[in-house]
Write a structure and sequence with these properties.
SDR_fam; alpha/beta; Sc_DH/Rdtase_CS; seven-stranded parallel sheet; NAD(P)-bd_dom_sf; Rossmann fold; sorbitol-6-phosphate 2-dehydrogenase activity; EC 1.1.1.140; 7 strands; single chain
Length: 259
């Protein structure tokens, strides 16, 4: 029987790319997103390419417990198993600490950390029941290993994700469920990064057109992080080849972060 991947935040950008990549790798894919129409659209694309029943779209607010429980039941009812959870939902707002709004701080914690906790908890229940092992992989950031100027809410939540990943790995090892965080470098072409360019330009005191190159110059390999870089590492840690690895925070940063 084909394995099932649940990708939370799978309705757009990086998450959608990962959904397509996992489908290419033979997974049935549950595309979950706050925007249910986007989730349905990505699922329809996968079904058109790989055959009906290859994917479903699910609307979910990962910050709300009842919504996550409902999402998990929908996936369980459709596929009867969850072998891989990818938590790709995320949000960021850049502001200096003396003007950082409390609602932006709370939203960052809710989406980047609490949502990860809720989705991992509910997916783990299905994995434990099915007794086939499993994989839980959080899409994290280098900001979860080093502080990020004017990004205190995002960085704090991502640091928390590393601690949660390690704790989940300890809790779930007896069930042969492994857990990892992927620590991404700057996804320069992503809508999230592009939306922050005006704030970064103001922070750095440079024209907006120069922001991307400044970030590239910080990377030893002199390139931003691409979606394909993330997919390649994700597929390895989701595979049996990484069965003896758990609780790791894996850098995909071009050498910008090395611990």
């Amino acid at each position: 029987m084909k394995k099932t991947a649940l990708v939370v935040g799978g309705g757009q950008t990086l998450g959608a790319y990962l959904c397509h990549g996992l489908a290419e790798d033979g997974y049935r894919v549950a595309v979950a997103d706050l925007n249910g129409q986007n989730a349905d659209a990505i699922a329809a694309e996968i079904n058109a390419k790989h055959g009906e029943g290859s994917a479903i779209g699910v609307a979910v607010d990962a910050t709300k417990e009842a919504s996550v429980v409902t999402m998990t039941k929908q996936v369980d009812d459709a596929f009867g198993r969850i072998d891989l959870l990818v938590y790709s939902a995320g949000v960021a707002k850049a502001a200096k600490i003396d003007s950082f709004p409390l609602d932006a701080w709370q939203l960052s914690l809710d989406v980047n950390l609490t949502g990860y906790f809720l989705c991992a908890r509910e997916a783990a229940k299905v994995m434990i029941r099915e007794n086939n092992g499993g994989r839980i992989i959080q899409i994290n950031s280098k900001s979860g290993k080093v502080g990020s100027k004017h990004n205190s809410g995002y960085s704090a939540a991502k640091f928390g994700g590393v601690g949660l990943t390690q704790s989940l790995a300890l809790d779930l090892a007896e069930h042969n469920i492994t857990v990892h965080s992927l620590m991404l470098g700057n996804l320069l072409k992503s809508p999230m990064f592009q939306s922050l360019i005006p704030q970064y330009a103001a922070k750095l005191g440079v024209p907006e057109a120069e922001v991307e190159q400044l970030y590239i110059d910080k990377v030893p390999l002199k390139a931003g992080c691409d979606y394909e870089d993330v997919l390649n590492v994700l597929k390895f840690y989701a595979s049996d080849k990484a069965a003896y690895c758990t609780g790791q925070s894996i850098n995909i940063t071009g050498g910008q972060v090395m611990f």
